[in-house]
Amino acid sequence: MKALVLRAAGTNCDKETAFAFEAAGADTSLCHINVLKETPNKLLEYQIVCIPGGFTYGDDIAAGAVLALQIRLFLQDVLLRFLDRGGIILGICNGFQVLVKCGLLPRLNGSTQQCVTLATNDSARFEDRWVHLVCTTSRSVLLREGERLFLPVAHAEGKFVTDNATLERLFKEQLVALRYTDARGRATQRYPDNPNGSYGAVAALCDTTGRVLGMMPHPERHIFTHHHPFWQRLACRNGEGDGMRIFRRAVAFFKG
């Protein structure tokens, strides 16, 4: 089972993400976007493709915009073939920004036309904190409906924005994968539980296949219990963190 972690100039979570996939049992490779532009069919050698967090190309135009354009121009066709063959795509933080801006999420009616975005946080500053989340879909192969997670966020442009009709449709079709909640698990618009002001408290989206997931929180930063900010107070101090579930499920999907 092979996973590819895609990187570009400014990616800074690639090694942590690769480590998480390896810990879950995947044979993992790091690959620069320029290599794939020359040999795009290389993607078809893998079962999982992950676009990790960071600040690709400095987010100089907008977060993830340059990498999203490169994917649209050079890799979108092969990524759609990759999905048709049953592959999984995971986008984390900057990777989520890339997926929505290149049109691979949410792909309503199969269209890659961008219909949502991730904008500047309401606080107008970089938010680096832990958040409570709840899964609100039964579609995603990487999540379980109703489960709650505690993961860190680290972004300046994480506010999920779309028009009201699209937001309503995303909820109706169960494409909203994770929502920001308070400590009791109730979805909220209140800061700092909702760290960026996302419409509908949306923290993650999936597509209709359930095999594409984009999320603002960082699962690779909570794969061990001791990553938790209060780990010494937990009953189990040597277990796995909430984020590890996502990587294990990705690998288990192919191992059966």
Record the SSE blueprint.
Blueprint: E1 2-7, H1 14-23, E2 27-32, H2 33-38, E3 48-51, H3 65-84, E4 88-92, H4 94-101, E5 117-119, E6 127-135, E7 148-155, E8 159-161, H5 164-172, E9 176-181, E10 202-206, E11 212-215, H6 244-255
Parallel strand pairs: 1-2, 1-3, 3-4, 4-11
Antiparallel strand pairs: 5-8, 6-7, 6-9, 9-10, 10-11
> In CATH, what is the class?
Alpha Beta
Mean pLDDT over all positions: 96
Order of secondary-structure elements: EHEHEHEHEEEEHEEEH
What is the straight-line distance between the termini? 11 Å
Q: Give the helix level as a range of percent.
A: 25-40%
Strands of the widest sheet, in order across it, are: 2-1-3-4-11-10-9-6-7
What is the name of the CATH superfamily?
A: Class I glutamine amidotransferase (GATase) domain
Report the radius of gyration as a whole number of Å. 17 Å
Describe the structure concisely.
25% of the residues lie in helices and 23% in strands.
Features:
256 residues; alpha/beta; Rossmann fold; nine-stranded mixed beta sheet; two-stranded antiparallel sheet; 11 strands
Please characterize this protein's 3D structure.
It is built from six helices and eleven strands. The protein is α/β, with parallel strands linked by helices and 256 residues long. It has one domain: 3-Layer(aba) Sandwich (Rossmann fold). Strand 10 and strand 11 form a beta hairpin. The longest helix is centred in the first third of the chain and has 20 residues. It is globular and about 50 Å long. The termini are close together. The relative contact order is 0.16.
